[in-house]
Specification:
The complex is a heterodimer of chains A (256) and B (256).
Chain A lengths: L6 H25 L6 E2 L4 E2 H4 L9 E5 L5 H8 L3 E6 L2 H14 L5 E3 L12 E7 L2 H4 L2 H11 E12 L1 H5 L1 E2 L4 E2 L12 E3 L5 E3 L3 H10 L2 E9 L16 H6 L3 E8 L2
Parallel strand pairs in A: 3-4, 3-6, 4-5, 6-7
Antiparallel strand pairs in A: 1-2, 7-13, 8-9, 10-11, 12-13
Chain B lengths: L4 H18 L3 H5 L6 E2 L4 E2 L14 E5 L5 H8 L3 E6 L2 H14 L5 E3 L12 E7 L2 H4 L2 H11 E12 L1 H5 L1 E2 L4 E2 L12 E3 L5 E3 L3 H11 L2 E8 L16 H6 L3 E7 L3
Parallel strand pairs in B: 3-4, 3-6, 4-5, 6-7
Antiparallel strand pairs in B: 1-2, 7-13, 8-9, 10-11, 12-13
Helix pairs in contact in B: 1-4, 6-8
Classes of the chains: A alpha/beta (256), B alpha/beta (256).
């Protein structure tokens, strides 16, 4: 049974079409051929985090791949990625970079909640700020489970619940005062049109286990000492991010 | 091991608390209850996702048992508990309650960071606001690992990091504004003389993994709708705790 598109998909597609024009298309040119894998807005190197593990030879699916830069990095490490995204403008940018760099892999226009690919066809499901915040975890996590082979891994980056608790919509900023309850936190619609999904750690842990995963790791990231506030994603300052985590990475394994 | 400096401070604090509250309250705490309830707002086992499960026939060590009401409940369920604590006054109350009720099990005056019992002698290690907040996790968690048999579980309840981030010393209360950074949070000395230990979730996850545990659960507890602020542990109100988690339970397993 085909899912009718959830209301937030159209809103997020519109938002990311605009963001692509403003930022991520030009960013793709800068980052596709970068030598090292880094995470998030403050560029924490993967060799410091050590959460991806060996990706050489793995079938990887990137849910919410955007302009495809992370998949490109994984392809250069010897993985076989497939990128999935709902925003045609971002996929066009990804295709342009594929032509320009010669790093090719399939790009599929679809939602991370409903991927037109077979069960148990991937070794690693991945999302850096893709499905991990723009899709409903109660939908995309079971879908990730379905796509994984037994023993396969799920690695995703999202915002920390704390930064979301402190997020101010207008003006877009991050307070040191809690703005909303964490109890029941799930879906947040911002005035810029985006609809995001954020769970507290207890709820995320529960949905991962109930979806059939063992939770292997939770890494909370802080901005490095010399980091500056991001030029585009400036809702939170580097100073805030040195004291409290803005981003986190989860790693889980599909139970046999 | 030379006694850490905070041991004497915490022993003094808990001798005072025992005179003021846990001593007079012991009979009530030891009274029969069908289901163990967790924390200051009495969250039921069921609401906590049945994290404890069946304990009949298990050798259990309670790290920082205080007046040992939790061990007493475990004994009534058919477990074989051993209670460890550093505060003679609390152990004296526990022994008095053992005499009163006839529920007897070993009580040992010791620091949970350095337990005079053999390796691999327990199936379950528990701590409810005992070692879990009053001992250095970098010491007591490896000690718990040593004491557990392969396949054994560690379950502990403590204050949530969010609660500690918002904790105000004078007057003793919980704000809605962050009071301190989470980056590097470890040891906190309060003006009442107590020294407590709190880690962010990422740091705790890393410690459990590095010690050799698999993390099976992180359950964030909220105050139930009908709960009231605790008569003695009143720094956090029931209203605050209905919106944000004030306590949490970690569940971990030592692999076979």
């Amino acid at each position: 049974m085909a899912l009718s598109e959830s209301d937030y998909v159209a809103q997020n597609r519109a938002l990311w079409t605009q963001s692509n024009a403003e930022y991520t298309d030009a960013e793709a040119d800068r980052v596709w051929l970068r030598d090292e894998i880094t995470w998030g807005m403050f560029g924490v190197p993967e060799h410091e985090v050590g959460i991806l593990g060996e990706v050489y030879g793995l079938d990887v699916i990137d849910l919410g791949c955007g302009t495809g830069y992370f998949s490109a990095w994984l392809a250069r490490c010897g993985a076989r990625p497939v990128g999935v995204d709902v925003t045609p403008a971002q996929l066009e940018t990804a295709r342009r970079l594929q032509r320009e760099t010669g790093i090719e892999f399939p790009l599929i226009e679809a939602s991370g909640e409903d991927v037109p690919l077979p069960d148990a066809s991937f070794d690693l499901v991945f999302s850096e700020y893709g499905a991990s915040i723009w899709c409903d975890p109660y939908r995309w996590l079971p879908e990730a489970w379905r796509l994984l082979r037994p023993g396969g891994r799920l690695v995703f980056m999202c915002n920390s619940p704390l930064v979301i608790l402190c997020a101010v919509d207008v003006p877009e900023s991050t307070s040191e005062t809690l703005q909303r309850p964490q109890r029941g936190m799930h879906r947040l619609a911002w005035s810029d049109g985006g609809v995001e999904f954020h769970l507290g750690h207890g709820d995320m842990f529960r949905v991962l286990r109930e979806s059939g995963f063992e939770v292997e790791n939770l890494v909370e990231l802080y901005a490095p000492d010399n980091a500056e506030t991001h030029e585009y994603y400036s809702f939170v300052t580097a100073d805030w991010a040195r004291k409290w985590p803005v981003e986190e990475i989860w790693a889980a394994r599909k139970r046999d | 091991m030379v006694e850490p400096d905070y041991l004497a401070k915490n022993r003094a604090l808990w001798a005072k608390v025992n005179a003021e509250f846990t001593g007079p309250n012991a009979a009530r705490a030891w009274a029969d209850e069908e289901e163990h309830t967790w924390g200051v707002f009495g969250v039921s086992e069921r609401e906590a996702g049945l994290v404890l499960g069946g304990v009949a026939g298990l050798d259990v060590i309670e790290l920082g048992c205080g007046t040992a009401y939790f061990s007493a409940w475990l004994a009534k369920q058919g477990a074989r508990p051993v209670g460890i604590d550093v505060t003679p006054a609390q152990l004296a109350t526990a022994r008095h309650m053992q005499d009163e009720t006839g529920i007897v099990f070993p009580l040992i005056e010791a620091n949970a960071e350095d337990v005079p019992l053999p390796d691999e002698s327990f199936d379950l290690a528990v701590s409810e606001f005992g070692a879990s907040i009053w001992c250095d996790p970098y010491r007591w968690i490896p000690e718990a690992h040593r004491l557990l048999r392969p396949g054994g579980r560690l379950i502990f309840l403590g204050t949530s990091p969010l609660n500690i981030l918002c904790a105000v010393e004078e007057p003793d209360s919980t704000s809605e504004t962050l009071q301190r950074p989470q980056c590097g949070m470890h040891r906190l000395a309060w003006s009442d003389g107590g020294v407590m230990f709190h880690l962010g979730h990422g740091d705790m996850f890393r410690l459990l993994r590095d010690t050799g545990f698999e993390v099976e659960g992180l359950i964030e507890l909220y105050a139930p709708e009908s709960a009231q602020t605790h008569e003695y542990y009143s720094a956090v109100t029931a209203d605050w705790a209905r919106k944000w988690p004030s306590e949490e339970i970690w569940a971990a397993r030592k692999p076979n």
